[in-house]
Amino acid sequence: MIMATLASFNNTNKIQWCPGCGDFAILLAMKNAIASSGLEPHQVCVSSGVGCGSKLPHYIKTYGFEGLHGRSLPPATAIKLSNHELTVLAVGGDGDGYGIGLGHFLHTCRRNIDITYIVQNNQIYGLTTGQTSPTSEKGTKTRSTPHGVIELPVNPISLAISAGASFVARGFSGDLKHLSELIKLGMAHKGFALIDVFQPCVTYNKVNTFQFFQQRCYKLQDQQGGWDTTDKIGAIAKAEEWGEKIPIGIFYQQKRPTYEDELPQLSKVPLVRQPIDNIDITKLMDEFY
Ligand code: SF4
Known about the structure:
alpha/beta; Rossmann fold; 8-stranded mixed sheet; 16% strand; binds iron/sulfur cluster
């Protein structure tokens, strides 16, 4: 059997991102992670919403779905429940996932469905030319807030842990090797995995640049004494660290049954392979008349 390589996930679609955008590294890290997990293109599906980064399913040769703004997770959930043998990833920006899609995000965390969610967090709305996003820091001047952002930013790490996500990590698109490894670990994890990724928008965010993160990011797992990923309260407290030093890596991981594990209908074969021609839906249809 011939194993898929990185090139197996390339297609010929023209990439529309600005030169230097952090999304290029995220795309490559996803291909690295999928190929090194031994998966074939037909075993993977990538779902997205709307935004610069949400164009990603067009640029990777797997199954893909680009839906509505903030709605990458509901289709990803449906895809996983229809065929739980597929490896399902969802991608989208911070505006998509932590703004309009916040409700879906919280409920997917608590459901613990086996999806890996990669958030391209550039702390701004890129596609619509540089407005404040839910993760823009207080005081940041953008086109929609010329006097500076008034609200506090959303903290996706502590939010995800509190809501019940069972794998919560943060990467940086300026560290491809580390990011590829995080995505691979997130995919191997049984349950909902959030990987929030610092993805500098080189066109509209002149504050949170590659240099900004290169100077500040350090790896949790490399610090003296390592990091206990089972310490939930410690992980929530660590998520508050922001300033001269910013932690990346796996904050929290928990083993618990997935949503699919708890559905008896999925215990034998995926729904897509279950016969439907012997099911009588007449009684059900009668209820609609
Ligand atoms: Fe990337 Fe920003 Fe350009 Fe969008 S606007 S493609 S996020 S650099």
